[in-house]
Structures are given as C-alpha cells and as structure tokens.
Amino acid sequence: MSLTAGEIRRELRRFIYDPYYKEPSRRVPIVPLCRYCGIAPQTAREIINGVKDAGPKCLSRFGPVIEKIMAGQIYFVRVGFKWEVCERPASDYAGAGKTGSDRAAKIIPLPKPQLLNRI
What we know:
- The chain is mainly alpha-helical.
- Helices cover 44% and strands 10% of the residues.
- The protein contains five helices and two strands; from the N terminus they run ααααββα.
- The chain starts with a helix and ends in a 14-residue tail after the last helix.
C-alpha cells in the first residue's frame, strides 16, 4: 500500500502535533526522518505547511518509511545530542501477530544518553 500526497502531509503533521507522538518513546523528529529518507528538511516543511505537494520522489521515499514507522518497525532514539534511526527485527514489531501483553513485554528500553567529553 502506497501513501498519497495528502496522507503523507497528514502523517508528517501528526508526527509534529499529535500528543501521541510527544511521548519520548514515540517521538519522530522530522530532520532525522528526512535525512533517513534522503529528502531535504526544507522540502518536508513545505509539504507540512501546504506550500507544495509531495512529488513522486517524496512519495517514493517518505511512503515506505512512514508505513514502517506506523507499523512499529522503525523508531528514533536520542543518543547524547543526536537522534538515531533504529529498525526492529521482524519478530519484535507489532505487526508480527503478537497479543497486547506479549508486545508490552517486548518494549525495548531507551539507552542512557552518552555524555560528551569536554576539555
């Protein structure tokens, strides 16, 4: 299933404004998402603000990644001052047919932030 331009705009806006994605374990930072997809962050902001529609390049790059985020296969972790993109193995994400209690036991804790050595 591929996402349309309107669905990509809606999901990107949800990643920013929806309270569900404000929780630290569910955050989807836009700039690291854009870097992962190979799209300029300015282009993503223009799509979110409705200045321009997502073209075929954005559809082909954002679509599969957003679907994986919604399925729980891709998540973001903050390490120090930087966000990293992490992918879960197919057996660990919610789409593997597990019940709710099984999924709760598989939650991966976030690592402690690494401190930078300052001189």
